[in-house]
Amino acid sequence: AQSVSQHNHHVILSEAASLELGCNYSYGGTVNLFWYVQYPGQHLQLLLKYFSGDPLVKGIKGFEAEFIKSKFSFNLRKPSVQWSDTAEYFCAVTSGSYNTDKLIFGTGTRLQVFP
Amino acid sequence: DGGITQSPKYLFRKEGQNVTLSCEQNLNHDAMYWYRQDPGQGLRLIYYSQIVNDFQKGDIAEGYSVSREKKESFPLTVTSAQKNPTAFYLCASSSDRDRYNEQFFGPGTRLTVL
Lengths: 115, 114
Prior knowledge:
Number of strands of chain A: 12
Largest sheet of chain A: 6 strands, mixed
Structural class of chain A: mainly beta
Distance between the termini of chain A: 41 Å
Number of strands of chain B: 11
Order of helices and strands of chain A: EEEEEEEEEEEE
Number of helices of chain B: 0
Number of helices of chain A: 0
Radius of gyration of chain B: 13 Å
Strand content of chain A: over 45%
Oligomer: heterodimer
Helix content of chain A: under 10%
Shape of chain B: globular
Structural class of chain B: mainly beta
Shape of chain A: globular
Radius of gyration of chain A: 14 Å
């Protein structure tokens, strides 16, 4: 069965620090990968996604993620965080089959950014 | 303005009572989902439906029931059989034409059992 691991449960940073959140998945076939973000009091929304092609994908608000197939990883990065990035971040994976597989979420990483 | 609405935002219930959470979407999406979110556990799938009048159990369906009589609506009933119902419930939908299953989420309902 597919699973997603997010090893950082709670990350605390100062503004302008660099961010990297880890995400590893277990599935040997083709995967589609997502990062979702949940700002305080707001909907869960898509940050970025990877389906195929360039393994470095760029999302909204300056976030990017790199798919490394050999490491089964899809880490999220941002060079310089802002206070407004304070949120919970979820990595998710589904197989490459046509809309037949469920979206499997990681347990989430809570990011706090202090001014 | 397309989107997913969930009501109510906050819900309180006494032990032993059933309660129904509403989820409506006007995105013309075929598939709809219910998740439960607990601190430190991420999102866990309760039920999902890929077409009207059909639905499947997710990973934690016990104590819950759903119906899908209309494409736009996918209500979730939390029954008295659910042993630990206090949680944040999220509804989502996706398009059948999107082979990558990108899901769009509603604002959630926070259920508290007193």
